[in-house]
Amino acid sequence: MAPSNQQSLRIWLLVIVAALMFLVLLQRLPSRQVDSQKGEAPIILAIGAQDLELHILPIGAVVQRLIVRDKLGAKRDVALGFDLDDLAPYQNGTSPYFGAVVGRVANRVKNAAFQLDGKTYHLTANDGNNSLHGGKKGWSMHTWSAKQLSKTSAKLTLVSPDGDEGYPGQVTASVTYTLVQGRDSTDVRMLFEAATTAPTPINMAQHCYFNLGGVHEPSDVLDHRIQINSSYYTPVDSETIPTGEVEPVKGTPFDFREEHAIGERIAQITRPGPGGYDTNMVLWGFDGPDAALHTHNCVSAIEVQQAASVHDPESGIQLDILTNSPGLQFYSGNFLDGSIAGKGGVRYPQHGAFALETQVFPNSINTPSFPQCVLRPGGKYEHKAIWRFRKKID
């Protein structure tokens, strides 16, 4: 028996409703599922009335989002990076270390080689003839084992095998991120730890790129105002390797003992390639031109102290950097050029961010007069850093 016109109409209405429901469901699905085995599933930490949110990826122990409130109470993501449906740059090394923990040795090792206990070790070169941030596949490209300890804390652990990128010894390294609420500020506290089966240099660093105005649209940080508690810096050669000298900042564009805009004297910096700051600032351990630098020995003899402060007059967001490390790499996003499409498709322009990496001095393993960090079996590596966020209303 053929269906009546009324029955046919009901069938077509059901088909149309089902199709519409399917389209709505399809729109709500992500473009693809994140894969926790590939380091794609984030851990989200939050504190207070969501005054600060930290999104961490197992791949590279990356800070993928860092959301803080501006002077008007609005939320701003202040960390450059990539969206969850575009994580390939973190995995294949085309990310310029956005938000990653770099190691085994952060920064540069000259000629990708060093001597330790009478033996020469050859590393993987990935920055001309030099090794940068651990080599071609440094720790920023590895998936760390991630464990959320609480709503405000997470620990990520990585086992780096003997011979990894040429470095000796099996190293078990970890970074613990913890959020702490203060009376008028909120901290992201980081504890970097490591142990080894054989003597090896260690220099872990967090390589977050900050724009305190937010990363929702292209903008530079040249109007951000910065102050650094440093009276000395380490000059570099044509390959951005420290020469071994330690020079006073007085009378140079590296003098940030008093607050200046990042862009105020940036044109005075002469260096190969794109201009700008990419400089190790001496925080402690050097008391004058005739004094020997203090040996770091992988565990600092001091507690964390304030190293730098940056604020954006437009957003009112201020970031203080505290650490127990002897050096601070100040980088002004020189190699950003608009070619990288980050979160939301935003293209990051030159000087679209700054980085303040707490560290042992670059190439220290080849510079005996610099603070050293050679970790030995039974020893302990411990590096502390704090990002302290507060509001500053001019």
What does this structure look like?
With 394 residues, the protein is mostly beta strands. It folds into two domains: 30 residues; 355 residues, Beta-galactosidase, Chain A, domain 5 (Distorted Sandwich), CATH 2.70.98.10. It contains two helices and 26 strands. It has a nine-stranded antiparallel beta sheet, with no helix packed on it. A hairpin with a 2-residue loop joins strand 10 and strand 11. The protein starts with a helix and ends with a strand. About 4% of the residues have low confidence. It comes from Symbiochloris irregularis. GO terms for molecular function: aldose 1-epimerase activity; carbohydrate binding. Belongs to the aldose epimerase family. It holds the Pfam family Aldose_epim.
Based on the model shown, name its key terms:
single chain; 394 residues; mainly beta; Beta-galactosidase, Chain A, domain 5; 2 domains; nine-stranded antiparallel β-sheet; five-stranded antiparallel β-sheet; 2 helices; 26 strands; globular; GH-type_carb-bd; membrane; transmembrane helix; Aldose 1-epimerase
Strand order, main sheet: write it out: 10-11-12-13-26-22-21-16-19
Q: Enumerate the spans where pLDDT stays under 50 for 5 or more consecutive residues.
A: 22-37
The CA-CA distance between the termini, in Å, is: 82 Å
Q: Please give the count of helices.
A: 2
The class by helix and strand makeup works out as mainly beta
Report the principal-axis shape: globular
The CATH architecture of the largest domain comes to: Distorted Sandwich
Query: Helices and strands, in N-to-C order?
Result: HEEEEHEEEEEEEEEEEEEEEEEEEEEE
